[in-house]
Structure formats: C-alpha cells, structure tokens
Amino acid sequence: MGSLPIARAFGYWDVHDHIMFLQDGRQLYGVYFEPPSHLHYTADDLLRRQSTLATVFDLVVPDGETLTTYTSLRGALDEDLADTRRYAQTCTDPALRELTEARADLLEQKILAGEVSHWRFFLTVTVTPPADARFEVGSTPAVQEVTRAAEQAQGLQSAAVAQLSAAGFAARPMTGQDVYAECFYWLNPGWPQAPQFIPQGERELHSLRRGRPDHLTFLRQVGATVMDNTESGGPIVGDRFVAVISLGRLPEYTETGYLAALTDTLSGTYYVVVQATRENDYDVSNELEKKKGDLWLRVKAPGVVPNGRATNLLAEVEAAQQLDGYESRFVAGVSVVLIAGSPQELERMKRQARGNMARLRAGVPIDYGYQSIAQYRALAPFAGGLSKFQFQPYTSSVVDLFPPVAPWKGFDEGAITFQGRDRSLIKFDLWTPRTRTAHWAVFAPTGSGKTVLALSVLSAHLTKYDDAILVVTDAKEDFRYFFKTLRDSQIIDFGYKSGNQLNIFDLAEGETEPDGTKLSAILSFVRLFVSEPADPKEADYEDVAMTEATMAVYHKFKNRGRWPQLSDLEAMLGTIENYTDSGKNMPAVVIGAARSVGIRLRKALGASPVAPFVDCQSNVNLHARRIYLNTSGIPEGDTLMRRVAHHIVKSVMWNRAKHSARATPKFFFIDEFENQIQSPRELGDIKDMLRVFRSFGVSLGIGTQDAQASQHFGGLMDSFNHLFIGGYSRKVVEGDERTPGVVDALSLPPVMKEKLPELRAVPGQYAEFALLVNLGGGEGRVGDIVQVEESKLALWLFASGKDEVAKKDAYIAENHGNVMDGVRQLVHDLYGAGR
C-alpha cells in the first residue's frame, strides 16, 4: 500500500521489431483496426457478419492465447483545433476570421468540459513460445533467439491483419512507436501526447545509478508516474483519478453490437477492454462429459429425487455439448476503465457507465476501489495480464463483444470540424484526394437547418482557401447578410423591380464567338420561350436554324462595340437564308424553321414583362470574388422568370469557372436546385457543367427540400461525392407504392430508414445531418451523424426567420448599416460577452 512508480508493477521487458517482449518469456503483437461506419449496417446485416467475425477469433487466437481488444475514448485536446485557428490567422477577410475563431472557441469549450472524445480501436494477442524455445529476463538470450521470436510473432500479426481485413475492418500492424504510445498513455493518462520511442539500438548511456550504467530502458521511457493506491475510491495515477468497472457476469445470450450499449453517450476518457482466452477444444469436451456424468447421477440415477438446480445445469451442459465441435469456448471478461481529472468527474462517469451496464442483463457491475487497482494493472496494454472477472462463453457470444461498427473519424485534416452524435470530432473537407470530385448536395426539409449547414461549410472553406471564389444563388434571401459582411463581394438582385440587367450573350474579354458550352447554354435559353416540337426531325431543323443564326449574329456584331442581344437573334432568324460557314443556301425546311422560331421568340420581346431582362445589355460588371445572385424578388409562381434567372446564373458560374486560374478553388452553391432542371436539355447542360467544373477546380453544392427531385437528376447523383441528409419524417423516408422514399430515391444504405427520422434539430443549438462521403475504390459511401453547431454570432448572422430578421435589422440600423457590428451588439445584449 502507498505510492510507488507504476512501471514497476508491470512485466514489460522491451520492444523489438514492433513486438513486445515480456519478462516471463512471452511476446505480444498489436493491430490497429477501424470498424466500418455504423451508418451502413442494420441489425440483420450485423447478424450476417457474425460468421465472418467468428473466423477472426477461431483463426487468430490459438489455444491458450489471449486476445484483448481496446475500445479507447480519449478526451479531445486543444491541439485538435490548431489547424482551424491557423486558417483563421492566415485569412485576410476579418468577418470570416471572426466567425472561424468563434466556432473554434465553441468547440474548445466543449473539449475543456470533457464533452468531446476521440475513438481508437486496437487489439493485442499473446504469443507463448514452446518450453524449449522460451527465454526470460533472467537469462540473456542470443540475438538469433530474439530475432526468431520476433519473426514468429510478426507472422502471426500479418495473419491477424489479413483476417481482420477479410472481416471488413481497416487494419494495420502496430509499430514499435504505437506499442510504446499505448503503454505510455495507460501509465501516464494525464499526458496529451506520447514522446518518441527510442529503440534499444539507439539508446545512449543516460547516467550512472549506484555505480552501474543506466540505459534508457523501455520501463524508464514509459515513465515513473506515481500510482497512489491508498485512495479507497480507486487509484490515482499521476494527476488522474482512475476507476475500473467490470461486468459481474456475461449473459448467456449476447446481442450483436453488444459493446455499443456500453459506450452509448459516454464522453471523456474511457477504455472498454475485452479479454478472451481460447480454451483447448479437447479439454472442453472432457470437462463437459465429466460434468454431465456428475449431474446425471444427481438427476436421473434410480432412487434419487431430482434437484431443481442440478436439472437446469444438466440441461445447460447437454446444450453445450451440442455446440461441441462447432464452436470454440473462451474465458472472457469485459471491463470499463474510467479516467477523470477530478473526483466529481469520476463520479459522473461512473454513473453513466454503470447505467449502461445495467441494461446489458449482466448482473450488478462490480465497482470497488481496491478492485480497481488490481484490474488497472491486469488490463494494461501489452502487459499480458488477465482480468479477475472472466466467464466462459462460446464463440457466438464472444464475437458480440467485438466492436463490429464504429463512429466515422472523418479526414486527417479538414476545413471544418463537426462533432459527431457520439461526441467525437469529425474533420471534413470538400477537397480531398480520396474523392473524385468536390461536389456536394444537401437534401433536407424546411426548418432542418439547411441554410446554417451551407453557410457553415462555405465560410469554413473560404477561411481555409483564402483566395477562393464564391458564387451563390438563392431564392429566399437567406445568404444576403453573410455576403454583406464579406470583403470583395457583390450582390445582384433578380426580379421585375430590380434594376440589374445581365445579357445572356455576353462573352469574356478577348472572345469573339461562343464555344460549344456557351452555344448550348444560349440554345437552352431560347428554348425557354420556344417549346421544342414533338417531332424529332422538326426539332433538329430548329436547332440547326438557331445555331446558324446565333453564330451569324455574333459575326455581325463582332466590331460594333457591344454584344448582341435576344432581339438581334430574333431579327437574324427572320432574315437568315445561308449557312454561315459555307455560304450555301439553306434548305427551305431550315429557313421555315428559322422563321417559326423567330415568330415564337417574339413573345419574349417588346412589351413582354420579361423583355427588359432577357433583351438587354448588361449594366453591372461582375468583378468581385464573392458574388451573390439573389432571385428572391421573382414571384413564387413565376416559373418562366425563375428559369430565366437560373440560366443567367449558370452563365455567370460557367464564366467564373472558365476564366479564373485553375489552381484557385471555386465554390458555387445553388439553392432550390430542382428548379434548375425542367427539361432533358437543361439536364444535359448541368451534366456538361459538372464535367467541366471538375477540370476547372470547382466545388458545386446544391440544396433542395425535395429528395424526390433527385430522380430527375439521372446520373448527376454520382457526381456528388458528399451528401448531407436532413431529418425527414418516417413516412417520407420510407415512401409508398406511388412515391419512392428518400432512401430509395438517393440510393442510401438501408439503415438510413432507421436513422433519418431520428435526426434532431434543436433551435439555437445544433442540427443533426447524416453525412455520407463516397471515397471510391469499392468502399462506397462512409460517414456518420454530425451535429452542425455554430457560435451565437454565426447563428444570428445566418438566421433567416421572420422575427429573427426583424430584430437583426433593428440592431444593424442602430449600427449605421454595419452588419457585423449590429449582430455583434445583438449577441452581446442577449448572451453577454460570449460569441
């Protein structure tokens, strides 16, 4: 009893060639593994994986060896936000910098409160050499013996990695640094990061202790952290309070994903440790037969009154014998290790962990202070110890103790950091080499937080990519306040009361005639007013006529100092009689088609309400890097005017993509995207844009309330690598005989039928979305449930509700029209000094 350097209590010897050697002659190897995302497996899918997981235990764990899995939840660190703060520091836009710093502050507060964790999964397996090849710390081994032992363990390690990979896990062997780091974290739980491990061959003489050379041994590197075992509530390791809660028994019948119930809603620093030692099949058979014989005499022997308990035990033994030869038996135990910074935090974690265990039909959880000391030593990674609370399930139950699915960890680096529903950090970036395109889509019903999500993603990426170009089109004016705060931004309003005019025929400086993409866009624009005939032959004649007239009108206005406009095209259709490239006379049917198109095009000219906006010269110069194209001024039911605006929007986006440096990131976002696609021609235009956008460094985002609209997108859906799906109702998610549900319409994993209706949106706090990312390479879409949470400053800046806008406008007016000053004052008055 008392305080002692904790490293002395463990039998570590050294790490050689990534293998741990223990002082008693055994070796251990380790494997990091990542279970697949839980957004892809229903309960039925997990049951089907049981046989695959069983092979891991049967083939990886030989008789008498122990497999230990560690599900590690470690409290996140301030360093996890270092890249976000770095982006903010290098951002030249003060509004973006302030919004990003406020988002980082919000996440930092949650980290300091212990509400955010990182998940990590690894396993260790013991390797016990035969008696004639075993050496211990007391007898110095030859170099060949150590090398041979390490190679044998490495061979078993490679086989374990192969079996885990076959079972659907991303697995890799642990290096010497990994082995050292996991031991270090266990023995030094208060340290944020493990130092660099120094292998034996690189160690230098450090000092002389008691007249002997003192090398930097493995135990010395692990540290001399003091463990105080006098505290009745559990040991104190360094500056951390530790407790271990073990299952009092394992239930006879476990459930797939058993461990998920143990880790539900946990936050802070935890280890869920599962140990399983495989018993010899021959010894198990003999033991069962012996038990059956003893029980038979107490139950069925002549003249014996059957004992109720013995009768039940006999039935269990006979049932177990039926599994003999089919399933292996293990000695297994499950414990939860809690590491806290204070006694109060430890009590909170205990209550949560005990509550989770109570739901598992595993008896009363064993939680006693002095028991925690022994368990903390026995469960240490690579120490080769055994839990004192172990029971004897068969393979079918043991595989349920293995974590089959896990939270998605996101990317190694991201423009934005989300918090997952399980309180883990998920870094996300539209630009990643693991995806084919950077296009993204948001499908969410009204009131689910779609606008805040889009603005969060866009503002984060503009902060990281400081020179990026942004073009947004919006039909609800939700983005106006955001653009008002940006430097080098421009707002263009569409509608009958707007004075802004943009000519669809405009070309970039230096160009004299349209290329194929521009020509296709002009023809699509004309088709808004000239419907396509049902007869394909007549449609072809009209296309030829429009193409020739368009090229001719550009040639006519080549040196006139202005671009042609729609009335010029109408006039050309009425006079053209020759092909522009050869001068030959057009056939009468083509001339007739040209006259017909010109006559029908007349309804968009003259006194037509749309004429001032479609037959005009541009009166605005789109020079800013951040452009907001606002279509909220168009009446809701005016489909024609809305489609006119969308065609002009696509023209602006195309010009920005083509005439900006390819290395410059470009972010385009189209809200209410389903309004873009009303005809096969428009679908073809969008497909062409997406194909070209990838070459020009564009990330196109779309937002829509109606997931059914995606059925009109056709193959477009494959171009969107990142999907955000909001909380649709169960009826909309599942659909019916006439209308396919969201899951079928978007080709989502079947488990999403359960997940989507559960997504929550808490006004003023956060909104949940299912994030699915297509990584390609046969992996399909991966992802998780993310919580989109913004600072109060950002929420009020992004807010678009009627009452919120009225309050915001009043504060902005008080601050002389300065949006950021007004919103900042509003937040201060409502919440105090915080952001």
From TrEMBL:
Signal peptide: none annotated. This is DUF87 domain-containing protein. Pfam families: TraC_F_IV (PF11130). It comes from Deinococcus radiopugnans ATCC 19172. It comes from the Bacteria. InterPro entries: P-loop_NTPase, T4SS_component, TraC/Conjuga_ATPase.
